[in-house]
# Entry
Amino acid sequence: MARMIALVPAAGSGSRFGAPSPKQYLQLNGKPLMWHTLATLAAVDAIDEVAVVISPQDEWFDDFDWNLPKLSIHRVGGACRAESVTQGLQALACAEDDWVLVHDAARCCLPAAAVERLIAALAQHQVGGLLALPVPDTVKRADSEGRVGATVSRNGLWLAQTPQMFRAGLLAKALAGVAAEDITDESSAIERLGMKPLLVEGDAQNFKVTYPRDLALARAILAARDAE
Ligand code: C5P
# Structure
């Protein structure tokens, strides 16, 4: 039977965040930020393994007690996200038809229900798909001087989130055919093969911690969840 593997690329340096250690290791409610991400994925019954890809030069991972079921660690991260995912897939030696759910380490407030929704929606799907949210706001395109150049219709626009779920064989093939630094998610590599991944409604809580200002919201969401 096909396995279901969550693959978490966590080899980024978090340069936009500007902290001395990568953001995935910042303390958040008593644990490293990425612990919350991994714990949610491990708690999803349908997921067999949670594989985290860190940089071979990572100096932080071993400082923490992760104490999570299903976890495997792969020190094979690359120069960009797509390289980290590609090398993670090679290290995992997946079967062609295993499902892989690629999830950003920094989306630490991912609700388990959203992952279960994605898995259920894709059970019979030929291509795979991703969590995403319809754009709620009016969208502006800036000109070179930071003024409004145009208002863009939000009709049919979605914000891509993760997990992004594809068969391992298809994903490896898609990533092998692209200039890795050009793509910021797995879906775009699949789209370049002419395929159409399914958009599955995500969750506003599943945002990516990118800047220091995002930490307060992540703290509040996780604390409210713990109190439930
Ligand atoms: O930089 P960005 O926020 O788009 O990174 C998305 C995910 O890819 C993060 O989980 C980050 O750690 C990971 N990444 C990686 N290897 C890199 C760059 C980013 O695993 N070289």
